[in-house]
Amino acid sequence: MRDMNVTRVGAARVAILNAGDLRLLFSEEMAVPESEWRPHYADLFERPVSCPSLSVYIEHEDVRLLVDANDYRATVAPDSPYAIAGYTPPPDIPAQLASLGVKPEDISHVVITHAHWDHYAGVTRPAGDGFAPTFPRARYFLGAADWADAELQTALRDQTSLEARTLGALQARGILRLVGEREQISDSVEILPAPGETPGHQIARIHSEGETLYVIGDLFHHAVEVEHPDWMVTWASAGAMRETRRWLTRDALAERAKLIAAHIATPGRIERAGDGLRWKDA
Ligand SMILES: [Zn+2]
């Protein structure tokens, strides 16, 4: 199927699913002065780029984990600043899972890397006069600091908001677990707090038969941020982001780990490049 990419990490089966491409304009979204990007990155910054909105499905022993679940059709209207003119998104995430032989009720865990709509809009679906979990047997994991965020709490009070229909509906059913520290899902799969993009941003680490994969959410939006660890989106918390990038790149380099970022189309690895680092497509 188009946009689907199945690979292995040790004994784990890993599939990359794209909910749909988003239009991003880095000159507006990145907190990088024009004098810094203009000399070498004008093409990347001054024209809109098309970035996927990825979910990652991981199957290992009893675990059927989905990291992030966007719902493109529910969130990107044709007049949205994120919409690409003339673009038709792929089938939704449940349909892409079905083509892998995975049913919604098979999913055991859903890790929401952070409380931005492009990472959770698909965790529920319309059912009767309300909203029901898209993956009815799963437990859902969200960073506690994202849940506590004042803007999110305000949005939850409006029953018609996206936040209330998704995260609020999960919480009301008692199936949303708020994660404050490192949490083991199984012997091979864990959730690691990785603040910066948001206070509660978290990533998943899979380790099997000597191979390691990190599903890193929005720790990097583009490979250029690996070379420039101080380059980040305007809404990031700079100190937290630098510190998370520091330990993640250190560990990923030592483990020769594979990385999958939510908005980078291809999995990659961290490589040394001179005094710094770079992203190498894997
Ligand atoms: Zn995102």
List the helices and strands and how they pair.
Blueprint: E1 5-9, E2 12-18, E3 22-24, H1 26-29, H2 34-46, E4 49-51, E5 54-60, E6 63-67, H3 72-75, H4 93-98, E7 109-111, H5 117-120, E8 124-127, E9 130-133, E10 139-143, H6 144-147, H7 150-156, H8 162-172, E11 176-179, E12 183-184, E13 189-193, E14 202-208, E15 211-217, H9 224-227, H10 238-255, E16 258-261, E17 268-273, E18 276-281
Parallel strand pairs: 6-7, 7-10, 10-11, 15-16
Antiparallel strand pairs: 1-2, 2-5, 3-4, 5-6, 8-9, 12-13, 13-14, 14-15, 17-18
Zinc ion binds at residues 116, 118-119, 218, 262-263.
Task: Explain what this protein looks like in three dimensions.
The chain is α+β, with helices and mostly antiparallel strands and 282 residues long. Helices cover 27% and strands 31% of the residues. It contains ten helices and 18 strands. The chain has helices at 26-29, 34-46, 72-75, 93-98, 117-120, 144-147, 150-156, 162-172, 224-227, 238-255, and strands at residues 5-9, 12-18, 22-24, 49-51, 54-60, 63-67, 109-111, 124-127, 130-133, 139-143, 176-179, 183-184, 189-193, 202-208, 211-217, 258-261, 268-273, 276-281. Strand 5 and strand 6 (63-67) form a beta hairpin. The mean pLDDT is 96. It binds zinc ion. Zinc ion binds next to helix 5.
The helix/strand class is alpha+beta
Bound small-molecule species = zinc ion
Query: Could you spell the SSE succession in H and E letters?
Result: EEEHHEEEHHEHEEEHHHEEEEEHHEEE
CATH topology (level 3) name: Metallo-beta-lactamase, Chain A
Tell me the span between the first and last alpha carbons: 20 Å
The total of beta strands comes to 18
Which strand order spans the largest sheet, edge to edge or round the barrel? 1-2-5-6-7-10-11
Taking the sheet with the most strands, its summary is:
7 strands, mixed
At CATH level 2, the architecture is 4-Layer Sandwich
Spatial shape: globular
Estimated radius of gyration:
18 Å
The total domain count is: 1
In CATH, what is the class?
Alpha Beta
Level of helix content?
A: 25-40%
Individual helix count: 10
